[in-house]
Input
Amino acid sequence: MTQHTGFTSDSKSGTPSLLDEVGRVKSRVDYVILNQLLPSSSPLKEVDLLYRMMRDYPQRKGKGLRPFFCVSTCKAFGGEESDCLLTAACIELFQNWILIHDDIEDSSELRRGEPTLHRKYDEGLAINAGDALHARMWGFLLRNRKLLGEERTLRILDEFSRMVNETTEGQHMELVWVVENKWGLNESDYLKMVTRKTAWYTVTSPCRLGAIVAGAGEGELKKLLEFGTKLGMAFQIQDDALNLVGDAEKYGKETSDDILEGKRTLILLRLLEVAESGEREKVLKIMGKSRNRKTAEDVRYVISLMKKHGAIRYSQEKASHLLGEALEVLGTVEWKGEKESVELLARVARYSVERQW
Output
């Protein structure tokens, strides 16, 4: 079974467009996940439900950027796409199990246009389904031994371990800020958090994993770390902006969800920095409320100030600057594979920041 990404072709010539290619890779990865990795049924009723829940998020519409970063980097270093599909599929499994947990931690209502797993079923069951995906992910990664050998498989496992650790550290930073109602934060604090929470599993590790599959050395992995950090920060800043001004149907989550959840985005921190004292006090009062106590009027007021003081524009300009720096780093990498894959990496990097959903 394959799923649609929601992308449409931007090509008028009949040749594959960037989004066609992203969709093609995602379809191949989805096939691996749904037909070769995740079990589809069980004679035990309770376990059958678990399997349905494990397959739920992977079957939903998604962008597929992470596996594309992995596959394209692998090919750009001279590796084979077929050698990379299992690792790319495990990146998607990682993405799905942390989203299940993230939705619970943030009390989110929607994920990819549908009710979150804990709303659709039960919170305890959703936590367990996420744990099950996590555990299976490590087992699936071990299948690389037959394909890539012991040494490369261990390098892949080591990269996954770091990706998990970095992501959970970043998530913990953000959760603590909300739990402690901490507002003495600045742009540097935000960028440190999103480097861990977003950049590692969105860009850095997918690219580095593709490079490892292709046999790249440590010098090139360091460059991909710098590239992934800068692009990952830019990706998250744009995602924060789309949460406020994006198309809700295409975005797949509640718009303004970050305000309801009390997230410390760069946009909000910028607003608090430039707002008038009375405005700042009112914003802090609103953001200090629990999610169920925030009103639609509260949300509208915060967004109106963000627009009034140019906080959204400021953040998107920051994202654009980081994108430029990331592309400069990408240009210093010594590629050994397909020129087309190198070009696709640069194009998908731009798309990930300039996207409108």
User: Anything to note?
Assistant: Residues 209 and 251 are 27 Å apart (CA to CA). The domain at 18-333 is CATH 1.10.600.10 (Farnesyl Diphosphate Synthase). The mean pLDDT is 93.
